[in-house]
Each structure stands twice: as structure tokens, then as C-alpha cells.
Design a protein that fits this description.
The structure holds two protein chains of two kinds. Chain A is mainly beta. Chain A has no helices and eleven strands. In chain A, strands 2, 4, 5, 9, 10 and 11 form a six-stranded mixed beta sheet that branches. Chain A starts with a strand and ends with a strand. The relative contact order of chain A is 0.35. In chain B, a hairpin with a 6-residue loop joins strand 4 and strand 5 (44-50). Helices cover 0% and strands 50% of the residues of chain B. The chains are: A mainly beta, B mainly beta. At the A-B interface, strand 4, strand 5, strand 9 and strand 10 of A face strand 4, strand 5 and strand 10 of B.
């Protein structure tokens, strides 16, 4: 079993839709949870960073962490064509300096 | 703020050759990590440098080595290149104490033929 599981998609939605992206993990040592957006042929861009269970909101983006279920989500409201990208979840844990990434979910927002 | 810069952007090498990739961290960051991203996969941690020392290493062979300079910039060296080393190599920088808030460069796309 991989430490971080993420459905690779692809996911296609109409403009204005609410998008839900998810990751599950198996390592209970993970304490930091991040979402990155990666456009084609570019490096990942940090979108959201959370430490504890609960919700964190930033504009149209909401990150949700449920440590009891080892499940994290990213919600995108009023999705735009410019949101079309691959979304990567990443996790870090106490005592380790590395980030462990999911495979990424490719999202297309259709005008 | 120039952010994290990597050079070169693209590189083609022959199997068995050696390659050096370079990274300048974001201003104010002193910690540099290197990741390998194969096509369709998430980035895989290679190693992290802090205070010119390798602080942690992922599951990569000794053919992968690195260096950090006093100005915090870093190099990744790969010896005896294999076809399977073809990937996007990403450098990420972070401030000490916030290593999980990693900011990535554009990457170097390495093709081994």
C-alpha cells in the first residue's frame, strides 16, 4: 500500500462547478498537509498548507483535513478554466524533512 | 523576488554520462531539497541540504549526489546516467523551521538517450 493515495483522474468539470479533490494516507506520523497546483511543464505551486484537522479557507479554495480518517480534501468553488492543472497533495511528518506526494489529479475546467 | 531558479531548463544526455543541475533558492531561504518527478507521477524526494550538509536522503542510489554552497545555492549531480533517470528534476527551498512550506522552481527536464 502506498503511503499517499490520490485518484489520478482525469477530472473534467464545467466552468462554475465545485471541484472536490481527495487524498488518503496510511502513515499516522504525517502532521503537515499541503496542496500544490502544477501547470503543464512547470514546477508545483504551493496553494494551501494546513497543520491540524479542520478546514482552512483561502478565496475560492478550502482545504480540509480529517486525521482520524487519514483523509484530506481540497475544494474549489466557482471553478475557472485557469484552474485547469494537475493538483498534488503532499504530506510531511515530525522527524522527517521530506514531503511525500500523491500522484496528482489532472483537472480540466471546460468553458 | 526571483523565487527559486533552476538551470538549465532542458538537457539531453547519453546513457552513462554525468550531469549537474543547479538551483538558487528563494531569497531568505536556507534549506534546499531536490525531487525527481517521472511523467504522470508525483515528485519523489531525493535529498535535502541545510548548512552545506546533506540532512536527509530518500531512496535513491549513490549515483545521486549533491552539494550546497555558502550562499545556499545547490547542485544535484547524477553519475552513470540510466534511461530511467529521464524525469523532471525539481528544486524546492524553504526557510529553516518551516521546511514543509516548500517553494519549487520550474524544474530541469532531463532526457537520457
Amino acid at each position: 500500500q502506498k503511503e499517499v493515495e490520490q485518484d489520478p483522474g482525469p477530472l473534467s468539470v464545467p466552468e462554475g462547478a465545485i471541484v472536490s479533490l481527495n487524498c488518503t494516507y496510511s502513515n499516522s506520523a504525517f502532521q503537515y498537509f499541503m496542496w500544490y497546483r502544477q501547470y503543464s511543464r512547470k514546477g508545483p505551486e504551493l496553494l494551501m498548507y494546513t497543520y491540524s484537522s479542520g478546514n482552512k479557507e483561502d478565496g475560492r479554495f478550502t482545504a480540509q483535513v480529517d486525521k482520524s480518517s487519514k483523509y484530506i480534501s481540497l475544494f474549489i468553488r466557482d471553478s475557472q478554466p485557469s484552474d485547469s492543472a494537475t493538483y498534488l497533495c503532499a504530506m510531511g511528518g515530525a522527524g522527517s524533512y521530506q514531503l511525500t506526494f500523491g500522484k496528482g489529479t489532472k483537472l480540466s475546467v471546460i468553458p | 523576488d526571483a523565487g527559486v531558479t533552476q538551470s538549465p531548463t532542458h538537457l539531453i544526455k547519453t546513457r552513462g554520462q554525468q550531469v549537474t543541475l543547479r538551483c538558487s533558492p528563494k531569497s531568505g531561504h536556507d534549506t534546499v531539497s531536490w525531487y525527481q518527478q517521472a511523467l504522470g507521477q508525483g515528485p519523489q524526494f531525493i535529498f535535502q541540504y541545510y548548512e552545506e550538509e546533506e540532512r536527509q536522503r530518500g531512496n535513491f542510489p549513490d549515483r545521486f549526489s549533491g552539494h550546497q554552497f555558502p550562499n545556499y545555492s545547490s547542485e544535484l549531480n547524477v553519475n552513470a546516467l540510466l534511461l530511467g533517470d529521464s524525469a523532471l528534476y525539481l528544486c524546492a527551498s524553504s526557510p529553516q523551521g518551516a521546511y514543509t512550506e516548500a517553494f519549487f522552481g520550474q524544474g530541469t527536464r532531463l532526457t537520457v538517450v
